[in-house]
Amino acid sequence: MRKTLLLDGTWSYETADGQKGExxxxxxxxxxxxxxxxxxxxxxxxxxxxxxxxxxxxxxxFLGVDYRAKVWLNGDLLGTHEGYFQPFGFDASGSxxxxxxxxxxEVDSPNDPPEIWPNAKTLVxxxxxxxxxxxxxxxxxxxxxxNTGGIWNSVQLVRHSxxxxxxxxVAPVLLPDGSARLRLTCRLSSRDNGEGERRxxxxxxxxxxxxxxxxRPVSLTAGTQAVDAVLRIDKPSLWWxxxxxxxxxxxxxxxxxxxxxxxxxxxxxxxxxxxxIDEGWVFRINGRRFFPRGTNIIPAQxxxxxxxxxxxxxxxxxxxxxxxxxxxxxxxxxxxxYAACDEAGILVxxxxxxxxxxxxxxxxxxxxxxxxxxxxxxxxxxxxxxxxCCHNEPSVNRHTLDPLLxxxxxxxxxxxxxxxxxxxxxxPYPGWYFGRYEEFRGLPAAPxxxxxxxxxxxxxxxxxxxxxxxxxxxxxWEEWAWRDFQHLETFAIAGVEMGESIEEFVENSxxxxxxxxxxxxxHYRAAKYRRATGLFQFMFVEFWPSIxxxxxxxxxxxxxxxxxxxxxxxxxxxxxQTWRRVWVRGGRGGVRYxxxxxxxxxxAFDGARVRxxxxxxxxxxxxxxxxxxxxxxxxVKQASTxxxxxxxxxxxxxxxxxVYTVCASVHTANGELLGENSWTVRMMDGPPRKHAGxxxxxxGG
Length: 701
Hints:
Helix content is 16%, strand content 36%. By secondary structure, the chain is an alpha+beta fold. The chain has 4 domains: 3-159, Galactose-binding domain-like (Jelly Rolls, Sandwich); 162-270, Sandwich (Immunoglobulin-like); 275-568, Glycosidases (TIM Barrel), CATH 3.20.20.80; 572-684, Sandwich (Immunoglobulin-like). Strands 25-24-23-22-21-27-26 form a 7-stranded parallel β-sheet, covered by helices on one side. Strand 11 and strand 12 form a beta hairpin.
C-alpha cells in the first residue's frame, strides 16, 4: 500500500538576484521574506530515506506551486510544470537513494512585462495577477504588486506498489424513475503487464444508508489506463443546497488487488445531484426550480494563508448571510474550500482563472486549454460545483480563445453547465460606475445578474491596521488608491460625504453600500421568475487589507452591507415598496405601500400572517395592520387588505417631518417568524398654501 512522506518545513532558497535565506514551506514568498519579488526563486531541501523505499515506484508530488516549476532530484531533472492551482507530480523512482536525498525546485513567478500588461497577459492567474481589488489595483506601474509566487501548498513523496490508482472520478446520473447510476472512472498506472482486481465500495459518508459493493478483474497494461465501473442506486439520497434540503455525501472506496493482496486504495467523497439551467437562466436542481441568492468570492490573494480555520469562518459567514450560491471569481481556490461548500450546501459557480484580456497566440491558447482540463479533472467530484465559466469579462479573446475553452469544458464534463464567459452584460453597476442606484428599479441585466454592488470602507479598526495615522486622515489618496479605493466613483457618482472625521466617512460609505444592496436585491427578488431568475452580489470578503466592494473586510469584520445582504437574502422576505421615497405630510391619499412576500423555500405557507407597523422619526408606533396571505412554494404573493385604499398610513399636517420606517414581518399560521424587513420614507412640508377666492388647497401626495 502507498506511504506518504511529507516534505513540508524549512527549505533554503536563493533568488535570481542573489538573495539567500530559509523559508517555511508551504508559503507564498511575498509573505515569507520576499515582498513584491517577481521572477525566479530556487528552493532546495534534503531528506533521509530508509531501506523500505528501495526499489519502489515513487512519485514526488506538489499540491500547489505558483507559477512555473522545474524540479530536480539528486541532480536528475524530473520535469517541469506550469499553472498555479493544480496538483502535479513526477516519477522519482529512478532518482531516489537510501540515505540522504536532495530536491531542488526552481519556481518562476514573473510579472508580465509592461509592454504587454495588462491587455495581452500571458499568465493563467486571473484576479491574482490583474484586478481592481488586488494590490495596486489596475495601476499600470503597481498593478502587479504582491506577486503570488511560491510553493504555496504541501510537497509529498509518495511510495507506490508496481500498480496503483492515480485518480477516481464519479459521475452520477439521475434517471426518470428516481434511481441513479454512478459511473466511476479509475485511472490506473502499472509498471508491468499482469492481472488484478478492482474492488469498489460505495457507502454513506455523513448519513446512514446501504453499502454497495462490486468487483471485477482487471488486465493491467504497462503504462496508464482507464477502467470504468457502473453502480445502480435504487433510492439515492440526493444532495441539495441548504435551503432546499440535506447534503448527504457518499464515499467511494476503490481498492486495487494484485495476487490476492490489496496494493493500493483511493477514497473520494461525492454527492448525487443534477443541475439544469435553461436558455432563460432558470436554475433547477434535481428537477426542482430554485432562485440563486449568490455572491462573488475571492477569499485570499495568497493561498498559503487560506487555512481550514479561515475557510470555516467564511462558510459560516456565508450561511449566516443566507447565501445559497457562491461564484469563485476568476480564479481557482484551494480544494478545502470546495469540500466545505459540499458539506454546507452552498452551490458553486466556478470561474476559470482568466480576467479581462490575454495574448492572442497558439501557445497561450494551448496552455489555457490544458489548464482548463486540469481544473475540471481536479475538482470533478465536488457536488457543490455546478457551473464552469471560461472567462470573466473578456474582450479580444471573447470570440477566439473562449469558444475553444467552452469546447474543452464540455468535452471534459457533460454533467455541469458550461458558460462561455461572464460578460459585462451580466454586470450592472448603477450607483457606482454610472447613474443612481434607484435605476435598479428597472432591473438592469435581468433576468440573470452575477455582479453588482458598490465599494465601502472597512471598519475604523481595520483602517487603523491598514494605514499609518498620516495616511488615514486626512486620506493619503495615493496610498488609498493602491489599496483599491475609487475616488471618482465614491464622491462624484455615489455622492458619499466624507464628513468631518474618519468615523463619519466610514459610516457614510458603509451606509451607502448597504442602501444600494438592499434596494437592488429587493427589486430583483420581488420580480422573481417574472423578470429575474437569480443574482450574485459583488463581492463577499476582501482578500487582502483593502477597500473594495466586499461586505466583510480582510480581518472578517462585517460592514453594514453584510447585514443588508443578510436581511435581503432571507429565504422568506417581505419586500416593502412605495412608488417614491419622499412624501408630503398632510397629503390626502396617505402613503401607500405594497408588500410582496418572496418565498425561496420549496414549501408553501398557507394562512401566513403579514404584520406591518410604522414608526415616526422618534420611534413611536403610529400605524399598525395585519393581513393574511397564502404564500406559494418557490413563489411571490402580494399581501392585501380589505380596505379599498390598500395598505397605507397617514401623516397629518401637524405630525413631525423626517424619516418614517415601515416595518413588516411574516409569520406562519402558527406564529413562527419567517422573515422581516423595513423600508424608509421621508416626510416633508408641502409648498405654501394657495388661495383662489374663497377656496384653499395644498399640493401633495
